[in-house]
Amino acid sequence: MLRKETIGGALLLIGAVVALIWANSPWADRYHAMTAFTVGPHALHLDLPLAMWAADGLLAIFFFVAGLELKREFVAGDLRDPRRAAVPVAAAVGGVLVPALLYFVVNRGGAVQGWAVPTATDIAFALAVLAVIGRHLPSALRTFLLTLAVVDDLLAIVIIAIFYTAHLSLLPLLAAAVPLGLFALLVQRRVRSWWLLLPLAFATWALVHASGVHATVAGVLLAFAVPVLRSTGPGPGLAEHFEHRFRPISAGVAVPVFALMSAGVAVGGLDGLAQAARDPIAVGITLGLVAGKPIGILLATWLVARFTRARLDAGLAWIDVVGLAVLAGIGFTVSLLIGELAFGVGSDADGRVKIAVLAGSLIAAALATIILRTRNRAYRQLYEAEQVDRDRDDVPDVYQR
Q: Which of 75, 77, 176, 329 can pair with 364 through a Cys bridge, CB separation 3.0 to 4.6 Å?
């Protein structure tokens, strides 16, 4: 059951709704006490709050699974053609540049340090919404969104490392190459023993975390080290095996718990929403997510498809890309992280950032739902019509007459 995206998406949305209600209830103090509870070995400097374990630790599992799927698409799937892969990659770049520009225009001369907040698409939430509302949409749409979101988050992590990392420790970052290299060596030799691979993966994650770089990048690096194709003979490779094993953990535990720990935003009632609606920081973030994301993605997609040899997947219509571009305006995980880095945890600006990210994400999800539900209905009718034609062709002519 947990390998079905609809189930995982439903658990994710339930976790987010519970956190939002809890954080705005009379028991909000208990919620914040839970997320701030510290656990972990102090000797390894891993005594972290539960919220950070969810964002940096559990989410790394999700990025590992997403990285495995993305590598399979690039090596043996639809994206093995560079002309087809270039389109979502370019779309991700456009989806980063335009929201940042819109935020900068709204806040010029003011709090420009938050320019990167609306640049990141939340891959977990976006894929969950797509899984729930688009059961008959073409698989190419999900592949496009997965590629766009992973590249988008990688760009956001690079932005954090360059512009928002005050203390970058090079020694742990360089040391992370040792367990990562050993992990890559073992998986290239098709070793599946968890007692060998898991300690190396944890060491890689811990060293990347200690370096100051967002620790979820360790999940992507580990996934990209896993081979897709079998060394000899037909059948699934190691990447597909790991994806099959870890997807239930990601969908059933990692992502819902992360949503529960991270979605608890104190809205502050109507007064809080009214203040946020007049604040340039909140306006820039909301505008970047709702308008900047789709404009940047559509513009970059059209330019690449129009002036290069890259092409849009034949199974997609431009209206599908419009719905996907609007859906990419769901920003949560990395957006909230950048907001905390830019304005400081617990500051007034940080509170407005959280409200704006939540509001912009909800608006983007609602608009995308309208578009993609319409497209899902059209694809379902097309599928049913083809099924009727196929059944009719299977009947001998004498019975048709």
A: 329
